[in-house]
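Bumping with the actual sequence this time:
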Amino acid sequence: MENNPAAELQLIVPNLHRRYSGVTATNRMVAPKLAKMFRAAWLGSHAPEGIARMGFADLLKLWRRPAPLIWHARRNDEMIVGVLLRALGWPLKLVFTSAAQRHHTWLTRWLIRQMDAVIATSALSASFLKREATVVMHGVDTERYAPPADRAAAFAESGLPGRYAIGCFGRVRAQKGSDVFVEAMCRLLPRYPDFSAVLVGAVVPEQQGFANGLKQRIEAAGLTSRIRISGEVPIEEVERWYQRLTIYAFTSRNEGFGLTLIEAMSSGAALVAARAGAAEFVVEDGITGVLVPPGDVDALCTALEPLMRDPAAAAAMGERARARVVEKFSLDAEANGIAAVYRVLA
């Protein structure tokens, strides 16, 4: 266990999910910040830089240790493992972060009742928990997700035609509203030749048919050169894609939080967002973004078109969006909120 002797450890950050997901992404961003405040270690896959790593052999050394350890779960399986370890003699204080905006299953409700503290990523998420929770909204690294020095030059790197880009990021699937975005682009791009569009995100095997349907729609509209589906790209390339955008479309039909909201805002893109996840808590409608109903192509087009017609207005909205994230949704603010919960348990 690199740089973290078992006797000194205070916090375990488990990530027991092999597939990279939004939950993993949020965990990876905030964990190194927490590791600057607590002696912490990451258990599982996709460990970020800036926090020590531990294996299951290291975990065995912590059995019946006198000093308590915080185990911060973000999924059911991580709660289950925490509950079992504590029952078997590991000195754990259990914390769970919930982003879900729905009624939980009986198993999740039972697991939540076993936690020593619960964090919700929005007031709406907290309302479904049936117990006291502390609201700590997600943050973003405003230095990594920052506006480019020259957005036109950043766009030119993309190889897309035109002068401006509209983006929609996340796994290509119906839940993310990828079809809503593609349909809106098929309607709008013919009217605005200076714009191109990009879907940045993985196409998992079970969604290949859905993705093929989107490609067929794009081909039928004659827009193959102006609507790109990138597939999965490294995180550094995702960050660069944000900097190439003038406008970001958040089209999810349902979300836990929707981290791309604040990533795009932090990067200085104008935002049109479906009222899903934390959008209504993050976006000041008409000021730092425009809110529309989920799954509504007509409403999305109506909100996007004025920004496409006036890229200078889009740039001004992007500046206001960036300022809001810096003020309210920084990674430091998230880490400080989580740390306050830990200190109550210590």
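The tokens above came from a reply further down the thread. Residues 151-328 form a domain with the Rossmann fold fold (CATH 3.40.50.2000).
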